[in-house]
Inverse folding.
């Protein structure tokens, strides 16, 4: 009974936050369906995906053009966590720091350290993307110079989406 009440409360909170990201009930319902499809695609829990999408949307919504982009960004990150063998705690920590970086407009300090430690595939994607843009130096130098902006993070994530999908498809299904 306790678990049922906790789940009900969690779903109510998620729905409330989704309503804050949308203009009307129909948009909220469409967003819920997209999040559900994304969670299935990334082999994750709906509640985890919805929580990540709503936090990112509420904290850093201005960094994205719409909620579809937020869902796609979160989906790629979830797949990176699976491919990179991140534990649930590591993925959660990295997503928390990623939310902070996207909200502040740049990756630096604690956010940088957490991404390097907990989301190495994202760090590699950022480094590769900036290298292709002609930026020279180490990722640490780029972060300290404020070059790793939310736009760079987003572009880097989307630039590797197809490769992440390919690697993700090679991952075996597990009971978890």
């Amino acid at each position: 009974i306790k678990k049922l009440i906790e789940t009900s409360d969690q779903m109510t909170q998620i729905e409330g936050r989704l309503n804050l990201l949308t203009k009307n009930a129909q948009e909220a319902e469409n967003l819920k369906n997209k999040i559900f499809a994304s969670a299935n695609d990334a082999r994750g829990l709906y509640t985890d995906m919805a929580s990540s999408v709503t936090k990112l949307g509420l904290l850093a919504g201005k960094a994205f053009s719409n909620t579809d982009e937020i869902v796609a960004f979160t989906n790629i990150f979830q797949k990176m966590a699976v491919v990179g063998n991140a534990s649930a705690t590591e993925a959660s920590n990295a997503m928390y720091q990623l939310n902070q970086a996207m909200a502040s407009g740049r990756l630096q300090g604690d956010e940088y350290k957490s991404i390097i430690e907990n989301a190495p595939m994202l760090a590699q994607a950022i480094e590769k993307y900036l290298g292709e843009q002609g930026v020279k130096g180490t990722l640490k130098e780029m972060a300290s110079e404020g070059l790793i902006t939310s736009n760079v993070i987003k572009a880097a994530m989307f630039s590797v989406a197809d490769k992440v999908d390919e690697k993700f498809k090679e991952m075996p299904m597990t009971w978890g």
Summary: The radius of gyration is 16 Å. The chain has a mean pLDDT of 90.
